[in-house]
UniProtKB/TrEMBL annotation:
It is a multi-pass membrane protein. The gene is LOC111274522. Solcar repeats lie at residues 13-92, 103-189, 200-288. It is found in: Mitochondrion membrane. GO terms for cellular component: mitochondrial membrane. It comes from the Eukaryota. This is Mitochondrial arginine transporter BAC2-like. Belongs to the mitochondrial carrier (TC 2.A.29) family. Keywords: Membrane, Mitochondrion, Repeat, Transmembrane, Transmembrane helix, Transport. GO terms for molecular function: transmembrane transporter activity.
Length: 302
């Protein structure tokens, strides 16, 4: 009966809940751009604007949100776990720091790497389902994420649900190291002293979060292209690739090295919007929980 108040009274509980709010904000703000990115990566379909016009004209605006149920249903828990794990690991990798001081940048980076590796266990099946839905040309074959997941389990087994797990882990571990390090570094540069005082402006959260998202995507984007192509495969379609190296080799051979950066502009635009929203929602929710509903952050848009 007293679990929830006790949970929110702990720092781990507050990190968990605030991370969930951040994840929801990120998904809702950036999902249409994510659909465009997936379509660009999976085939040579043209520019993001051209794909957007084609989707809206032939499939309707709702197609931009197709497959959102899978990440939205899991994103609260997933993102909550990411921020909670990161808070624990960043401290664990920097045990010399006092509890009142923020972890060092080394602790931040190593904590991010560990967080990315662990979260890929949860993320890989969700992204597989999401990608399969986003690449459908109509909503008729699968009506939602549960149908897709059941179909994968039936035809490919549990191993099929984790198709692309290795490449997901290889992408997410360094990506999260860059992600958290960039956020902590940029927020301190934009508002000196804020890492300890936690009193930065909303614009600082938005910009630092946006730049963190951009940095994390740029450092791992070729791996994300390979991941999308591997996870887009299913037993019902011809198997183009036999693994990470084979996919990388065949993709470059067929379309040139530019294919490894196809859709980067869309991904970067989405990353800035999404991660600005994630960190702003996370920081404000955390402050609200810490101060019992009274957010102390300066919200002046300067």
């Amino acid at each position: 009966m007293d679990f929830w108040p006790e949970f929110l009274a702990s720092s781990c509980g507050r990190e968990f809940v605030a991370g969930g709010f951040g994840g929801i904000a990120g998904i809702i703000s950036g999902y249409p751009l994510d659909t465009l990115r997936i379509r660009q990566q999976s085939s040579n379909s043209g520019s993001a604007l051209g794909i957007l016009r084609r989707i809206v004209a032939t499939e309707g605006p709702g197609a931009l949100y197709r497959g959102m149920g899978a990440p939205l249903a899991s994103v609260t828990f997933q993102n909550a776990m990411v921020f909670q794990i990161y808070a624990i690991l960043s401290r664990a990798f920097d045990s010399s720091a006092s509890t009142t001081d923020p972890p060092s940048y080394k602790g931040v980076a190593l904590g991010g790497v560990g967080t990315g590796a662990l979260q890929s266990i949860m993320l890989s099946p969700v992204e597989l389902v999401k990608i399969r839905l986003q690449l459908q040309k109509s909503a008729s074959s699968h009506t939602g994420p549960i149908t897709v997941a059941k179909s994968i389990l039936k035809t490919e087994g549990l191993r099929g649900l984790y198709r692309g797990f290795t490449i997901t882990a290889l992408r997410d571990a360094p990506c999260h190291g860059f992600y958290f390090w960039t956020y902590e570094y940029m927020r301190e540069q934009l508002h000196p002293g804020c890492r300890k005082s936690s009193q930065e402006r909303l614009t600082t959260m938005l910009i630092a979060g946006g730049l963190a998202g951009v940095a994390s995507w740029v450092c791992c984007y070729p791996l994300d292209v390979v991941k999308t192509r591997l996870q887009a495969q299913s037993p019902s379609s011809p198997q183009k690739y036999n693994g990470i190296i084979d996919c990388l080799h065949k993709s470059v051979k067929q379309d040139g090295y530019g294919v490894l950066w196809r859709g980067l502009g869309t991904a970067v635009a989405r990353a800035f919007v999404v991660n600005g929203a994630i960190f702003s929602a996370y920081e404000n929710a955390l402050r609200c929980l810490v101060n019992n509903g009274n957010v102390q952050t300066d919200h002046k848009l300067e």
